[in-house]
Each structure stands twice: as structure tokens, then as C-alpha cells.
Specification:
The chain is mainly alpha-helical. Helices cover 62% and strands 4% of the residues. The longest helix has 33 residues.
Length: 562
């Protein structure tokens, strides 16, 4: 087996068609790129006990988003190590190990879901799966740059395009599998038909002579259900979300596809170059493209490496926080004001389209960077991106004041354009590195630069969930203060001074409060992410100036064989 995975076994013979390599790279990235559809998992993971709504003991959005965060952190850290290891052992060995980690991570995570042990989900999907992500991510990039030195931007776009498009297949596949294994919980009747009692924030009803914890689904929450059920009272712990079974199926499927793709890798001979091509001569238009190489150890001593680190970190922070909660976000901004349009299925399609534009942006923008230059393309990303992020709070406010489909269309269009640039920023980074540091050691340098992704993997979701939770608690408090205390107590079984307990046990939501709010009260759901979007716009402004400061690498850092 060790011989089959050896680097020497995959050196391509003379006359090998280099276009046979990209399909293997894209296949692996399509598998690991399904991580971008993580937000599809958020709602079911938050309803493992309640199924139709979150029960008191169910995980919160912050808890499940952190699983995605851990996976991204481990991606960057493992890539930092794997980049240099890749140059030593070749992409086939790295790809097979990646398949074992990514597929195995799903299997361990599935066990954690069955047992409702979050640490197993963190270990499986987050740590082991995240290592698989990092190994799988770096293996195609340096390989394709070696095969396409004449078209670096296009090559990295091809290598990373599949990662951005992984959710195109992953999102609908995950939705379909979850629905296949879904089982409805026991239905007791409407709120008027069931006698409810509230204790320490939990809701209870008598079933077969015994008190059982229940969840209550209001009519305006039905549209956000994964599988449509009628409003009313359901018994906690009597249904099944089907997400554990989904994890098992995905783990086995991804493992098989990635192993087959890994055995399709080939490397060019050390002296190979495309027919009729020679490295470009330095010129004013190509002043950032070097004819020299800088090794990984020397690259981290240059200011260019750290400026690019900031560029990548803040670009990813702005996008990845939104990616982790995409399905939840569009549901909260538009789900209550346009419930017949923005359903659970619509939100899942939003995740899919976001992935499609992410993928298209990776190829289109990285290819454009071959002609416009890497620095100029990143300047476009950050200037335009900051303006687009800043426009979302305005759109959300208008939606809150005067709900209309036009604001949903505007939000959709802005989001899709944002994610073309988010994907393009990822895809053009390896080409930017090879321009500055040469192609010979780009795998190791790229791996170390991906520690910026690890940092962003923490910073983005933490900022997003923290700012959203703060806005949500403030919105719940403000809304509750406008409601007649007698109506509040009749609805929730406790006086309004126990609001904090109801929030903690997830027995109260904005839709439930809006159902009993005075006529004319504005729904604050649309503005929960406004502070987050303005913060992300500020990060892109910082990245704009970091990119503007990048200059060619000083000759003292160039690699010498002596």
C-alpha cells in the first residue's frame, strides 16, 4: 500500500495530457467543499429533541456554529503542516489520508448526534474532519500550479472551484437525506386544546397521566419547519430529525469518492514545462511576478507574507461568518415578513445558490487576475465588498418598515455578488503567492498562509453569533416590554419578569412575541444581523489598505541552491 501511495509512482510519462489532472482535484474539493453547506445542519441540530422546534435541552445556534468553526480552524492548522509534507510525499498519499479523516469525521460525528454528545461531534466533524479538510484542500493547488505555470490564476481557480461548489451538491443532498430519515413527533393538539404548565422556563403537558415536556409551534413558525407540520403542541423526544443517519451516509460516500480521485493524481517530471512556453520577462505590467523562488521558511520572514495573511484573514472573516449561518440568517431576516416565500426549502436553495456563485467567482475572478493583475483584483474585492456589506442593514431596515419582495431580491443579488468575490479571493491567493515567491515552494507557503483561514474561522462565526445573539436578546426584551403583561402571562404561563428564564430555555421567540404584540409593531427579526454586516464592511476596508501596501519581495530572500 505504501508503494501505491509513493510520490515516484505518480510521475506522468512524456506526452501526458495535463487536462486529465483537474477532474481529480475538482472531485476532492467538491467533497470537502460541502463544509460550506454546514448551515443546512444548523436547524436540525438545534431541534434534536424537539424536532419541530427547539426544546430546552437542545443545542443553541452558537454551540452548533462552533463545530463549523473548529473544522475551519483545524483546516488551516493542518494545511500549514501538510503544505511542506505534500512536497515530500506527493498528492496521492495526502489525498488518501484526507479521505480517511473527512469520511471518518462524519461517522464519529454521527455517533455524537445519536448519543447527543457534543464533544463527539466536535471531535469527529470538527477536529478529525477539519484535518481532512486541510489535507484535501492543499493537495490539488500546488499540483495544478505545477501543471499550468503559464496560467496560474486559471489553475488555482480550477483547483479551488470545486471547494466553493461543494454545497451545490451537498446542500440539496443533505436536505434530501434528512427528510428521508425524518420522523414526526407526537402531536397533542392546538394550544387551545392542551392544558400547558410552565416551570423554570420549560413547557409541560399531561400525557397518559404523566407530565411531559412539550414544545409549542405558532402558526407563523410553520414556514421554517424542515418538514411541514401543523401548529400546536408536540411531545419532546418522540420524533427523529434524521441527521445522524445523514452523517453516516455522507461519511461513507465522501470517503469512496475521495479515494478514487486521489489515485487519479499525476505529477509532471521535474524538468517539464508546457510546449512553447517560457517564464515571462519582467516588465512594468508584470512587476509583481518574480522569476525567482523563495522557500517556505524564508517566506515567513517577509512583510509580503503577513500583508497577504491580513488580506486573506479579513476577506474570509467577512464571508465565513455569514456562510456558517446563511440558512438561519435569511429565515430570520425575511421568514416572518414573507413566510409564504422564504420557507425552509427556499432558505436551503439560498445556500445552494450562494455556493454556485462562490464557485463561479473562484474561476472567473482568478482567471481575470491573470489579465488584470492580482493586486488590482483584490482592490476591487475590498472596495466593492465593503459597500455591499454596508448595504445589507439598509435593505433589512426597509424590509422591516415596509415588507416587500423587492428587498428580498436586493438582498439575494447583493449576497450572490459578495460570494463571487469571497470565492475569488480564495482562488487567487495561491497565484498571488506564486507571483511573489515563485512556484517551487508554493505548496508549503500556501499551507502556512492558511493559518489566516483558521483565525478567520474563529473570528467570523464568533463575531456573527455574538453580535446576532446580543441583537436578539435586546429585540426580545424591547418587544416584551410593549406587550400587555396580562396577555404575556396568559400566553407563556409566567409573568414578564421571568423573560430571561424563557429565553434561556428557548420557550420564547420573536415570532411568538409578534403574534401577541400590539397592532403596528415593527418586527425586529429583519435587523438582527445589521451590526454584523457593518463590522464585516470595516474589516474589508482594513484589508484594502493591507493589499495596497504589497510590493515585490526583496532579492535577499531569493532561494539559492548553494
Amino acid at each position: 500500500m505504501a508503494g501505491l501511495l509513493a510520490k515516484e509512482r505518480i510521475i506522468a510519462p512524456p506526452g501526458f495530457n495535463r487536462w486529465r489532472v483537474p477532474p481529480a482535484s475538482i472531485a476532492i474539493h467538491l467533497c470537502i467543499g460541502s463544509v460550506y453547506a454546514w448551515s443546512v445542519f444548523n436547524p436540525p441540530l438545534m431541534k434534536l429533541h424537539g424536532v419541530v422546534a427547539s426544546a430546552a435541552d437542545d443545542w443553541t445556534l452558537t454551540q452548533v456554529t462552533w463545530i463549523f468553526t473548529v473544522a475551519i480552524v483545524c483546516l488551516g492548522l493542518s494545511a500549514a503542516v501538510a503544505g511542506k509534507w505534500l512536497e515530500q510525499v506527493g498528492p496521492r498519499r495526502v489525498g488518501v489520508v484526507s479521505a480517511c479523516c473527512w469520511g471518518g469525521g462524519f461517522l464519529i460525528g454521527g455517533v455524537g448526534i445519536l448519543l447527543h454528545q457534543s464533544w463527539l461531534l466536535y471531535l469527529g466533524y470538527g477536529v478529525i474532519g477539519g484535518i481532512g479538510l486541510g489535507l484535501g484542500y492543499v493537495s490539488p493547488v500546488s499540483t495544478l500550479i505545477k501543471w499550468f505555470p503559464d496560467r496560474r490564476g486559471m489553475a488555482t481557480g480550477l483547483a479551488i472551484m470545486g471547494f466553493g461548489g461543494g454545497a451545490i451538491i451537498g446542500a440539496p443532498l443533505k436536505e434530501s437525506l434528512i427528510k428521508t430519515f425524518y420522523k414526526s413527533p407526537q402531536y397533542l393538539g392546538t394550544v387551545d386544546q392542551v392544558s400547558l404548565k410552565t416551570e423554570s422556563g420549560r413547557r409541560f403537558a399531561t400525557v397518559d397521566g404523566h407530565p411531559r415536556e412539550v414544545v409549542v409551534v405558532s402558526p407563523n413558525e410553520v414556514g421554517q419547519m424542515l418538514v411541514k407540520e401543523q401548529p400546536g403542541v408536540y411531545v419532546v423526544g418522540t420524533g427523529r430529525m434524521g441527521i445522524a443517519e445523514t452523517f453516516f451516509v455522507l461519511g461513507l460516500g465522501y470517503f469512496l469518492v475521495m479515494v478514487i480521485a486521489s489515485f487519479s493524481y499525476r505529477l509532471p517530471a521535474p524538468d517539464w514545462k508546457p510546449a512553447g512556453w517560457s517564464p515571462p520577462e519582467p516588465s512594468v505590467s508584470r512587476s509583481m511576478i518574480t522569476r525567482h523562488d523563495v522557500n517556505a521558511d524564508q517566506a515567513i520572514k517577509t512583510p509580503q507574507f503577513y500583508l497577504l495573511w491580513i488580506v486573506l484573514c479579513f476577506n474570509v472573516t467577512a464571508g465565513i461568518g455569514v456562510l456558517g449561518v446563511a440558512k438561519t440568517m435569511i429565515g430570520e431576516i425575511f421568514g416572518t415578513t414573507l413566510p409564504t416565500i422564504v420557507t425552509s426549502s427556499f432558505a436551503a436553495t439560498f445556500v445552494l445558490m450562494m455556493s454556485l456563485f462562490n464557485m463561479l467567482g473562484r474561476f472567473a475572478w482568478s482567471t481575470a487576475s491573470d489579465y488584470l493583475g492580482r493586486q488590482r483584483v483584490y482592490a476591487i474585492f475590498f472596495a466593492l465588498g465593503a459597500a455591499l456589506y454596508a448595504s445589507i442593514p439598509w435593505i433589512a431596515t426597509r424590509q422591516s418598515q415596509s415588507p416587500s419582495v423587492q428587498w428580498l431580491i436586493a438582498f439575494y443579488g447583493v449576497s450572490m455578488l459578495i460570494f463571487t468575490m469571497y470565492g475569488g479571493g480564495f482562488a487567487a491567493i495561491p497565484a498571488y503567492l506564486s507571483d511573489l515567491f515563485g512556484t517551487r515552494f508554493v505548496g508549503g507557503i500556501h499551507g502556512r498562509l492558511l493559518t489566516a483561514w483558521s483565525t478567520a474561522g474563529v473570528l467570523g462565526p464568533v463575531l456573527t453569533t455574538y453580535l446576532r445573539d446580543r441583537s436578539l436578546r435586546q429585540a426580545l426584551t424591547d418587544l416584551a416590554s410593549r406587550i400587555d403583561p396580562a396577555i404575556f402571562e396568559k400566553t407563556f404561563g409566567v409573568p414578564v419578569d421571568q423573560l430571561s428564564s424563557l429565553i434561556e430555555k428557548k420557550s420564547i421567540t420573536l415570532p411568538k412575541l409578534m403574534a401577541i404584540a400590539p397592532p403596528g409593531t415593527l418586527d425586529p427579526s429583519s435587523t438582527l444581523y445589521s451590526t454584523t454586516m457593518l463590522t464585516m464592511a470595516g474589516l474589508l476596508v482594513i484589508a484594502f489598505f493591507a493589499n495596497a501596501m504589497i510590493r515585490p519581495v526583496d532579492a535577499i530572500h531569493h532561494h539559492s541552491e548553494s
